[in-house]
Structures are given as C-alpha cells and as structure tokens.
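Hypothesis: this fold can be encoded by more than one sequence.
Test: take the structure tokens below, design a sequence, compare later.
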C-alpha cells in the first residue's frame, strides 16, 4: 500500500510539473506581448517594415529566452507555396553572399529543411553526431548544438522556422525545446496578424491610390474656369466628405451666350454616387445643348409656360431657348430611370438658364434645396422652391418651369444639404435657420457672401467629422 509520504511526493512532483508548464506559458505570453508591441510600433511603416520588425524582435527575444543562444535565424514562409518571404540572421557577422548561401542550403538540406518537412521540433545536442546538421565548407562560425522550432498557424500551415545555435554541445535541453514550442504557438498568431496587416495595408494603399485617381477625374468634371461676364460674378465651393463625391455644380455658356447653372446632389456617397454624378452632369450638358424642337415658338411656349404666369423674357426666341435647354432635365430623368432603374440612384437637381443681358433666369428645381435670392441689403426676396421631383426616380415625371428676374445687386445662392446638415463636435446640426441668418447680412459681392458662409460653416464644424459633401454656388448681378 502506497504510503502517505509517497502520495505527498507524487503530488508535489505533479505540482512542480504544472508550475513549470505555467512558467513556460507565462514566458511564451510575455514574448508574444513584446513582439506584438513591436508590430504596433511599426504600424506607421511599410508592410515589409512591419513584418521585418516583427521577425527581428521574435528572433532577438527567442535567443535570449533560450538560455542565451549565440546565433540564430528566422525564416518567414508563404503558407501556400512554402517559399521564403523573408529571412533574418541575428548576431551573425556574415557577408550578403554568405547569407544568401546559408539560407538556400539550410532550408534545403539543413535543420530548417528537416523541420519544414516534418513540422516538428528539431533538437540537436551535438552537430557532429547528427546528420540533420549541415556544415558548410566556409561556415563562418562554430555550431555544436542547435534547436529548430516550427511556427504553425491555426490552419496547421507552416508560417516560419526559428533556428537557435550555440557553440557548445548539449546547450539546448528538451525542456528548452518544449518551452520554445509553446512560445512558437504565440509567435504564430502574432506573425500571422502582422502578415495579414501587411496585406490589408497594401490593399488599402492601392485602393486609396485608385480613389485619388477618381478624385482627380471627378475634379476634371467640375468647371475649371467659371464663366466671366460683364456685370456678373459666379463663384462656387466644393468640399467632398470623401475622396469622391456625389455633389456637383456646373456653369457653362451656350452658343447663344445664355448661361447654364447647375447644382445637384446624387443620393448616396462614395464611388457609386461619384459615377452617377458624372453621368448626370454629362447628360444635362449634352441634352441642353442639342435639343431642337420643331414648330413655331408660340405653341411650344404656350404648352410649357410657367404656372400662374407668362414668360417674362424679352423675346419668344429667348424664352424658347430657355425652355428647350430645360427639357434636358426631363430627358435626363427618363434616361436614368429607364436605363439604370435597378441601381435606385437619383439626384436632387437645380438647373437654370440665365440671360445675362436681362437678368431673366428660367429654371427647374428637381427636389433640390430651395435657392435664395437675396438683395444688396441682405433681404431674402425669394426662395426658388421645388418645381418637380428628384431626377431619375421614375420615367415621365413632370417638371415645371419657373422664371425670375435678378436685379442689380441680387445674389442667387444654391447649396446642397451637406451645408445645413453639417454637425458641430457635440452633434448639433448647422440648420437652415443658421444659413438664413448668414445670408441675411448684406454683402458687396458673391465672393464676400461665399467666404462668410464657409467661415461660419467650417468654424461651426471645427474638428467634427464631415458626413456629407458640401457644395455652394453663388451668382451676383453687379451694379
């Protein structure tokens, strides 16, 4: 019968083994922490720099943990192909030529190659008595004991191999090997995360480059130079929330010297909205410049005259030209609704045609924010409210045409909802009322009013994130 003393000894031995195991696990955990800190510090580096930093830290710490291993190497492998992605030798004074030869030979015939093929620890207590060790003719240092440890991820794929070296025999023990195996499991997680971060970083930078190209292309769609006219001033502000935007503005001259004015906001944000922004802008320009109606002016004008009023242009020819151009909204609506209905994309859009000689502005407001007409004294004379639905929702929608007269000193202000829905750092909206307060102060130019709006808006936002595109268009008839 087993004595109580023997039972106690067995229990103590078991506790010692458990304590040793826990100590090894603690060492492994602390090592993983050190490596992870190195990866975190390197997040501002290139993907290759992050991986190399993690490898170097891994090898340095492993060499120290394993009873001061004198030299070592760490190979990072591609799990799919098994090829070396990167390799680091530590505390080894070798030339680049020697380094390349070492890496190639040891992974083919040496201990690292054996570990790679068998996916298990390789412990060599005496290199002269173990054929797994490859001694090169021009070996730059003496190695008598070695330890090879596989780094394996959760999918049982080989991520890397650690090889630790010492100039004395029997330097590495079985316990050291088992401790290193526990460490390698944690290292596998860290290196896998570093590798995935590198891939994500590479993809993210490639995507950013593509978006930057898209931003440049989109900027090219906006008018490089706004029309410069005697007695008129046209200015604009475009501030996208992301690299590409769904807002746009336009100002262009027709062959008959009339001026087209557009401000619009495509639903949604990002790349999809930016592509449709380009589509809407192109369609409005093409359709407004190419439409030719058959028949006499009078019947056409009678059929499309503004509600509750007559055409106020100086001639039927001018009124007809405005009416023809504005039919671009109807054609754009039908094209988008019929050809791209599955995308459920539409735009709120204001399109006006201005006669710079008379100040007559004919317009359609397709579901867009009301535009202000404010005089020299800051009095809001009129709001140009919606005359139809958003453009592109359904085919054959009706869009009413309206006309106004811009007198000298009047400023027309159009904006997108990114202005009124901008938020302060504490989450409060800028609001229509705040914009109205700014507009109601007298301004001597469209530029002065534009700068006042921008200053108030961006000061209000401060460092709060911008959630929507901000676009403003201002047109003033000078004295």
């Amino acid at each position: 019968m087993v004595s109580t003393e023997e039972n106690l000894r067995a229990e103590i031995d078991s506790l010692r083994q458990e304590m040793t195991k826990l100590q090894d696990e603690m060492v492994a955990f602390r090592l993983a922490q050190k490596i992870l800190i190195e990866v975190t510090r390197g997040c501002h580096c290139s993907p290759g720099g992050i991986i190399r930093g993690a490898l170097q830290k891994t090898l340095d710490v492993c060499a120290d943990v394993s009873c001061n291993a004198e030299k070592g190497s760490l190979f990072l492998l591609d799990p799919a192909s098994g090829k070396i992605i990167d390799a680091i030798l530590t505390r080894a004074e070798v030339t680049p030529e020697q380094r390349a030869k070492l890496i190639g030979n040891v992974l083919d015939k040496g201990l690292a190659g054996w570990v790679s093929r068998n996916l298990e620890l390789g412990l060599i207590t005496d290199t002269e008595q173990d054929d797994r060790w490859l001694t090169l003719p021009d070996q730059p240092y003496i190695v008598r004991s070695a330890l090879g440890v596989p780094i394996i991820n959760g999918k049982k794929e080989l991520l890397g191999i650690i090889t630790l070296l010492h100039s004395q025999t029997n330097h590495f023990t079985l316990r050291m090997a088992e401790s290193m195996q526990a460490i390698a499991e944690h290292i596998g997680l860290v290196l896998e995360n570093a590798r995935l971060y590198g891939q994500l970083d590479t993809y993210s930078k490639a995507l950013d480059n593509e978006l930057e190209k898209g931003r440049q292309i989109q900027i090219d769609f906006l008018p490089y130079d706004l029309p410069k006219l005697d007695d008129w001033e046209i200015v604009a502000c475009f501030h996208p929330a992301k690299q590409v935007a769904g807002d746009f503005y336009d100002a262009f001259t027709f062959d008959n010297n009339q001026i087209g004015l557009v401000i619009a906001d495509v639903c949604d944000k990002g790349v999809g909205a930016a592509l449709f922004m380009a589509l809407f802008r192109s369609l409005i320009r093409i359709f407004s410049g190419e439409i030719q109606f058959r028949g006499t002016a009078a019947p056409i004008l009678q059929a499309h005259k503004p509600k509750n009023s007559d055409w106020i242009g100086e001639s039927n020819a001018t009124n007809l030209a405005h009416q023809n151009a504005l039919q671009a909204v109807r054609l754009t609506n039908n094209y988008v609704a019929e050809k791209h209905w599955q995308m459920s994309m539409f735009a709120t859009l204001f399109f006006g045609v201005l006669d710079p000689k008379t100040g007559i502005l004919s317009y359609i407001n397709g579901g867009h924010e009301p535009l202000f007409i404010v005089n020299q004294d800051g009095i809001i004379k009129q709001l140009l409210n919606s005359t139809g639905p958003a453009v592109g929702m359904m085919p054959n929608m009706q869009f009413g045409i309206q006309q106004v007269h811009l007198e000298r000193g009047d400023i027309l202000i159009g904006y997108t909802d990114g202005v009124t829905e901008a938020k302060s750092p504490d989450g409060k909206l800028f609001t229509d009322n705040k914009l109205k307060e700014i507009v109601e102060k007298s301004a001597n130019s469209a530029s002065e009013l534009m700068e006042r709006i921008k200053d108030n808006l961006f000061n209000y936002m401060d460092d709060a994130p911008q959630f929507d595109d901000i676009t403003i268009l201002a047109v003033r008839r000078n004295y």
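The chain is about 45% helix and 20% strand. The chain has two domains: 17-205, 222-477.
Hypothesis status: open.
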